[in-house]
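Here we describe the complex-level prediction in full. Unlike the single-chain runs in Section 2.1, the two entities below were treated as one system.
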Amino acid sequence: MISNQVLSEVEFNVVGKRPLRPDGVDKVTGRAQYGDDTNLTGTLRAKVLRSPHPHARIKSIDTSKAEAFPGVRAVVTAKDLPFASLSKDELGGEYTALKYASDHMLASDKALFKGHPIAALAAVNAHVAESALALIQVEYEVLKPVVDVREAMKDDAPLIHEDLRTNDMGETGDKPSNIATHMSYSTGDIDKGFAEADLVMENEYTTATVHQGYIEPHNTTAFWNSDGQLNIWTSTQGSFQVRGTVAGVLRIPVSQVKVIPMEIGGGFGGKITAYLDAICAVLSKKTGAPVKALMTRTEVFEASGPAPASWMRVKIGVKNNGKMTAVEAEIAMDAGAYPGSPAMQAIVCAFACYDVENGKVDGYDVVDNKPKTAAYRAPGSPQAAFAVESLIDEICGELKMDPIDFRLLNAAKEGTRRIEGLVARRIGLVECLEAARDHDHYKAKLDEGIGRGVACGYWPNRGFQSSVVMTVNYDGVVSLIMGSVDIGGTRASIAQQAAETLGIAYEDVKPTVVDTDSIGYTFITGGSRTAFATGLAAINAAEDVKSQMVSRAAKIWDTDEDDIEYVAGIVQHKSDEELKFTFKDLARQLATTGGSISGRASVDPTGEGNGYAVHIVDVTVDPDTGKTDVTRFTAVQDAGKAVHPSYVEGQMQGGAVQGIGWALNEEYFFDDSGKMMNPTFLDYRMPTSLDLPMIDTVIVEVANPGHPYGVRGVGEASIVPPMAAIGNAVHAATGHRMRSLPITPGRILEAGWENGRS
Amino acid sequence: MPGVTHVQSTLNGEVINFLCEPRQSLLEVLRDVLGMTGTKEGCNDGNCGACTIILDGRIVDSCLVLGVEAEGREMMTIEGMASAEGLHPLQQSFLENAALQCGICTPGFLLASKSLLDQEPDADEGRIRHWLAGNLCRCTGYDKIIRAVMQVSTAK
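The structure predicted for the assembly as a whole is:
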């Protein structure tokens, strides 16, 4: 049995190999500098006073006692942000966006979630800062909270924003509502489709609020120099996003802000939003000193951006032969305090694995009194897949059809028109399903007490802007400068693509991640875009280097550029075999023939290749305790081309295990007053090494035509299938159909008692 | 302001002296007083293991130990794991097996793994999974970490 398979059809010299990562030694010796390792001379420590209430009007804030406390250097509230002194007329159309962004950082009129920042202060050390926080006096008028997505949608629900009106397919509602947006897509004729079906099944599903659970808490150090330059050292997936947010909220030009991305201790989508940066900036301006903040783990849970809870209704019609005739879904997700849940992505992803003629999906973005949600690995898709893939398993049960055969019969393929109207380019779902069907795991005999489940998942993957600059050193080593932060092998995978294009050794490319002043705009490390889009930037920059190397050789040989070719790292004359330079030989001559060579590229590609994954899972369920154990797990995914297979496997395994946690354990518990009851790693239970088997992988490689080496993204599709696959396996083991996440021991026991009674 | 206490202990083989307040955790002392930032803060309440160090031969979460408790004791942090001769075999194995993605939990895992293999060089997969259950990793799903430790273990 092979634990990790790569089904490659095309081989390259560097791409597809498993070299050591350039930042590896620093990370195993403790030398790598993460955000909180920043320590500038004279740094003050900031702490944030947060609302103890999920919903309250702020009547007054008295900071005088805190300001007088020995060791405190400055206190800030929303009054210190530019928004406080700008009128609604002045801001015009910008008003709402700036109010949301500014209030999210420091609340002005209302606290909208427990943990909402109310004030912050800077002091000589963290202990003094913490002691002084208690001296800030805030008078609240406590309001009724709502922390359930369906409750928040009701007409009589407490209003989160008095002025929010529903954007209903472009039309603005006539009364305030917590439903920020309703959107809908449809294709074909669903009435006809359901009428044609031999079997129609429909069910409702819910999922709980969960957190990305990165181990490094949010942190930042800001220094606003007296010359007006604001420098920020932080842990982020997007240094340019932080720059944009901070400049926007502080109403200063982006060029006045430099963001230095430190090593990042996990993100999974949760480290895109800037929480502490503007607060520390304003404190730095007030004190003239660098100011650093580090969230506690409880602050991370209560006041960063978890993934939304959801309510979903799914209806599917099929013929007796298994062919799907119509699909329908309604998905409501809670965005937390401010609009922006991934309900839109959820409805687009819901049926993206299937080729169905008739369909309709409706999504609702709903605000409530939880922290504003953020992206979490394939945002929106995992919830939708839990509902759709669970219902499909039920349908397979009714039809007595193998779940992989059913999916192969209905699988989306090149040319499939998806519900939002886009037509799929070359995709690899069928290949993934076939690899799963043929896998040792799927064919293995089921021992007594074991349930097996399968599910598939989709994520579109993204393109967006990336920039790369590379310089040829005189020893032939290429310095590669990029703006994409390295969240888990980025440097290696980008260097590999550069080396492949240049025809030189991987070790001869030295990648460095730089600040926002040192490279062109680069979008976040996220969306499964980096290996694809920053990879393309590296490839294009390498092509730029190659053409300049050819020009240089032409100059040296006093010949025409058209007579010279660049083949596999050799610059050679097309007809004169004597004239030939290796990359290193030519690099050595650069100094005396015109100086150094730099290649550069900024890209905004649109050729991203959609990602598909299929997971197989075996579970046992303890009949006495209801505890589910995952005993075997196989993750199959189309990578297009795995640039560094070890890190692709790592993405597949990491996503699968986050999915296992989401399926079985993880959940925000709220008490009656809307407060989270489990904001620690003790009570918010993420999987440990003891809870898991090895996660076997199969990398399928169906080349993405939009990339020279066929690369698709790989980071996100892996978290989409596990919840339904586990739910389906639990059903196979126990006969209980679990339609709410997480599938806790309690819920399984309750299902058993229900079934026993009926 | 609380008073400060003089503490003498051994860190990575060197005798050191430092001043700390009684309320400061050993994690805070290591990072903020001694500048040893290889020891990471993940939760500050003993649940994630990112701040794992070896204290008198036993692994501890340094966030749960007070700085003053280091008096007269021997500490080993990630900064003491490699030597002039090169990386410790576990560090090399973590690199070769891609056992880290973001790397924030890595120092804690390395010290916990070292402590296990120092005591039980032949630890098998089950034992390793059990021993490392106090260290959270959110990136890897543990698979490659477990394999990296198994490669150094003498159990075959």
